[in-house]
Structures are given as structure tokens and as C-alpha cells.
Amino acid sequence: MSPLIANCNLKIFNNREAIHHYLDDIRSSGKSIGFVPTMGALHAGHLSLIEAARRKTDFVVCSIFVNPTQFNDKKDLENYPRPIEDDLRKLREFKCDVLFLPEVDEMYNSSEFWSIELDNLDNILEGRIRPGHYQGVTQIVKKLFDTVQSDFAFFGQKDYQQIMVIAYMVRKLRIKVKLVICPIIRENDGLAMSSRNVYLLPAERLQALALYKSLTLAHELFKTHSVKQVKKKVNDFLESCPGIETEYFEIYNARTFKPITSKRAVTMIALVAARIGKIRIIDNMYLNKENLY
Ligand code: AMP
Predict the structure, then answer these.
(1) 32 versus 262: which is more confidently predicted?
(2) Neighbour count for residue 54 (Cβ, 10 Å)
(3) In the CATH scheme, what is the homologous superfamily, with its name and number, of domain 195-286?
(4) Which helix (H) or strand (E) holds 92?
(5) Pocket test for ligand 1, best of 47, 159, 215, 284 (most atoms within 8 A of CB)
(6) For 166-186, how does the pLDDT look when each residue is reduced to its tens digit (9 = 90+)?
(7) Ligand 1: does its nearest atom lie under 6 Å from the Cβ of 192?
(8) Is 46 marked active-site?
């Protein structure tokens, strides 16, 4: 361990009440709190959120919790990577102040029901393919927001629909937190970083690039073609890619999160999901913003 890492204090809490009280003291000292919820297996995408929180706020809280209620596939939950020692090292290196690391029974009673109206955002795209997923996401995020009560919470654009769903919940329940959307961090060849990428076999890892390519193609075509033409050409491209089982490629109004059929003076976003072998990959890109990072 480098001396830098050894010197950084990362306080770890497993208990809701304990972290809540600790953060009360931080708040009373006048410090702003930034919160980064994750499921661990931290990569550069997660760490960019910690960095953004460090830039914008005085005190950074990260949570690692593999939330069972948002998994509609039991095998996916069982197999989800949990390299906690590695995660702790990274959090220290990136000077996170506090980690909330609860067990499942700290967050859930055995008999618990959660149902929140989400303006149909939970039934489209990811929600259609993963029924119940966004109910599980909002359930845990509400509990985490209540526990941490941060001024800001940082989320990756990678899970764009998740941000739309959480933003809706925050407005609906009048939760006092400001959401910050951070850019997608990609591998050098363009693949969006994801904790599940480690499960791609070498050949699948190459095939997975088709998603990023489909988005850059959409971005390019969008300058000269209609929405309908872009969708047709990109779907044709995806169909021609070996190993890719496309689930959806759609173009949405980035603010209302409704499908668009013709170009408008609003920010538009292309969203894609596909299966490659046993792994699902999602990605997205704004079409009328220069964001080809
Ligand atoms: P997860 O651990 O998958 O629940 O993700 C935790 C947070 O990290 C979410 O806000 C994600 O959107 C964000 N995130 C995941 N991958 C990336 C990425 N490649 N770039 C930026 N943020 C990401």
C-alpha cells in the first residue's frame, strides 16, 4: 500500500442509524455532503462520480450495496462481482470520506412492500425487459437518500433511464437532494465501463463494441438524416453485427424521456441495449450535443 493510501481515512459504517448521526454532525459543522450510491466492483466510471462529488461538495459519502430487489434474475444477483478489498483501496485512493456498507437485513425487513407510481417510466425500455427493476431501484435509493440526506447525489449518464426514474421520484416525494449527471466513462476503444464487463469472454468483448459503434453511427447520421432513417440504418447495422442480440435502439427526448419521431429543438438521446452471450449491455449518447467522449 502506498503511503498516500495508508494516510487516507475512510470511515466505514454498516448501520443506518450510526451513519445518519455521524452525518448530522458533519452537516451541523456547515459542510455540504455529496453522495455516490453504487453496487461496488468499482471502476473508473464510479470513481469519476467520487471525483465529481469531491469537486462540488465538502464531504463525500459512497455506498456499496448489491440491492436484491432490483434484480429480476437471481443468477445475476448471485454472480454479481463483490471485490470489496479492491473497492476499499480505490475509495481510499480517491479520498472518499465515508463508505456505507450495509448487509441486506440492515436495509430490508423480511416482509416489505414497495410500490411507487413512476409515470410509466418503469415500464419502457429497461423497465419492459427487466420488470420490477425500477421499483427495486427507487426502493433502495429512497432508503439511502433518507439515511444519508446529502445535498447532492451523483449518478452516471450510463444508466440514463435510472436517472429519469430517480429524478421523477425526487420531484414526486419532494426529497431535498439535487441530482448531478456525470458523463459516461469508456474504455479506450469506446466500450462503456460496467461492472459486468469482466464477464465478457474475449470474443464477446470485441463484439460488444458494436453498441458504441451504433451510437457513434447514429450521432453521425443524425446530422443529415431523419429520425426514422437513423433508426432504420442503425438497426440494420446492429443486425449485421455478429453475436449481438439487440433488445432496443431508440431515440428519445432527453428531458421528457418520450420517444421522438422527428427532430426538435430539444436534446435528443439514443439508447441501446443488447445481449452478447449471457451478458446484457446498455449504452447511450446525446445526438445533438458534442459528447463523443
Ligand atoms: P452501479 O454500481 O452499476 O449501480 O453504478 C453506480 C453508479 O455508477 C450509477 O450512477 C451508474 O450510472 C454509474 N456508472 C456506472 N458505469 C459508469 C460509467 N461507465 N461511467 C459513468 N458512470 C457510471
Answers:
(1) 32
(2) 18
(3) Pantoate-beta-alanine ligase, C-terminal domain (3.30.1300.10)
(4) helix 84-93
(5) 159
(6) 999 999 999 999 999 999 999
(7) yes
(8) yes
| CA-CA-CA-CA dihedral for 89, 94, 98, 104, to nearest 10 | -50
Average pLDDT, the chain: 95
What sign has the CA pseudo-torsion 182, 72, 200, 206?
A: negative
> Hey, is 190 helix, strand or coil?
coil
Q: Quick: pLDDT tens for 34-86.
A: 999 999 999 999 999 999 999 999 999 999 999 999 998 899 999 999 999 99
pTM above 0.85, yes or no: yes
Q: What pLDDT score was predicted for residue 263?
A: 86
Residue ranges, CATH 3.40.50.620, the chain:
3-182
Q: Confirm or reject CATH 3.40.50.700 for domain 3-182, answering yes or no.
A: no
- What is the model's pLDDT at position 280? 95
Q: Is 70 in the pocket of ligand 1 (CB under 6 A)?
A: no
**Distant-in-sequence contacts of 253-260, Cβ < 8 A, 24+ apart:** 254/160, 254/286, 257/121, 257/161, 257/164, 260/227
Question: Who contacts 97 (Cβ-Cβ below 8 Å, separation ≥6)?
Answer: 9, 10, 11, 59, 60, 61
Rounded distance between C-alpha atoms, residue 54 and residue 251, angstroms: 33
Does the C-beta of 133 come closer than 6 Å to ligand 1? no
Q: Where in the chain is the domain with CATH 3.30.1300.10?
A: 195-286
Average pLDDT value for residue range 251-274:
93
Ligand 1 centroid, distance to 192 Cα (angstroms): 10
C-alpha cell read off for 292: 463523443
Candidates 96, 101, 158: which one to mutate for ligand 1, based on the most atoms within 8 Å of Cβ? 158
Mean pLDDT of 221-226: 96
